[in-house]
């Protein structure tokens, strides 16, 4: 087992990209391994921001791993991402700042308004507007369009997001 360079309690990391705040990571305990560009977090909360520095969503998890040079973050254990209109649950998630993308191969449960969609694998933006569940998709959706043209319009709908 490697010994960390630093151990910080009740600490915060601010991740930036091109000078803009992209995430604020707060944890009960941080274990910093400087040579590996690796910071392990326990009981973590992350506020995500878009490329204009505007708040998008909040993640909570049991554990996390920050790679500041790669501008990436991974979380494990009862992971929840939520904002004022959506909620995402999984056992693990990865966040790539450069691509503004949340991903996982694990089981996910996604809720937005009265819709609940579940499946395996996910790609989503940090605001949870554009969500794609990749395999074994099932769930309950309300207010589906009744025509094929209406269903096709879901894919291009930027005001309410894409259908998962």
Element order: H for helix, E for strand:
EEEEEEEEEH
Shape-level CATH architecture: Sandwich
CATH superfamily placement: Lipopolysaccharide (LPS) transport protein A like domain
CATH class: Mainly Beta
What is the CA-CA span between the terminal residues? 41 Å
- The number of domains: 1
Mean pLDDT score, rounded? 84
Query: What is the helix fraction of residues, given as a range?
Result: under 10%
Instruction: Assess the beta-strand content as a share of residues.
Output: over 45%
Largest sheet: 9 strands, antiparallel
Shape estimate: elongated
Alpha-carbon Rg, integer: 17 Å
> Which structural category fits the helices and strands?
mainly beta
A few lines on this structure:
This protein has 164 residues and is mostly beta strands. It has one helix at residues 148-156; strands at 6-17, 20-33, 38-49, 55-67, 72-82, 86-96, 101-112, 115-124, 131-140. A nine-stranded antiparallel beta sheet has the order 1-2-3-4-5-6-7-8-9, with no helix packed on it.
Helix and strand arrangement:
Layout: E1 6-17, E2 20-33, E3 38-49, E4 55-67, E5 72-82, E6 86-96, E7 101-112, E8 115-124, E9 131-140, H1 148-156
Structure description:
With 164 residues, this protein is mainly β. It has a single domain, classed as Lipopolysaccharide (LPS) transport protein A like domain (lipopolysaccharide transport protein A fold). Helices cover 5% and strands 64% of the residues. A nine-stranded antiparallel beta sheet has the order 1-2-3-4-5-6-7-8-9, with no helix packed on it. The N and C termini lie far apart (41 Å).
């Amino acid at each position: 087992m490697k010994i960390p360079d630093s151990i910080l309690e009740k600490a915060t990391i601010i991740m930036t990209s091109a000078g803009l705040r992209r995430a604020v990571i707060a944890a009960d305990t941080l274990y910093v391994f400087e040579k590996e560009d690796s910071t392990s977090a326990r009981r973590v909360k992350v506020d995500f921001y878009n490329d204009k520095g505007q708040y998008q969503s909040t993640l909570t998890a049991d554990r996390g791993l920050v790679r500041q040079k790669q501008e990436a973050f991974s979380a494990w254990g009862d992971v929840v991402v939520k904002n004022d209109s959506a909620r995402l649950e999984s056992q693990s998630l990865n966040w790539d700042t450069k691509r503004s993308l949340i991903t996982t191969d694990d089981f996910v449960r996604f809720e937005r308004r009265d819709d609940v969609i579940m499946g395996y694998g996910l790609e989503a933006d940090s605001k949870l507007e554009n969500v794609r569940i990749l395999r074994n998709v099932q769930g309950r959706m309300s207010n589906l369009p009744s025509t094929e043209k209406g269903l096709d319009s879901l894919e291009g709908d930027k005001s309410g997001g894409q259908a998962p």
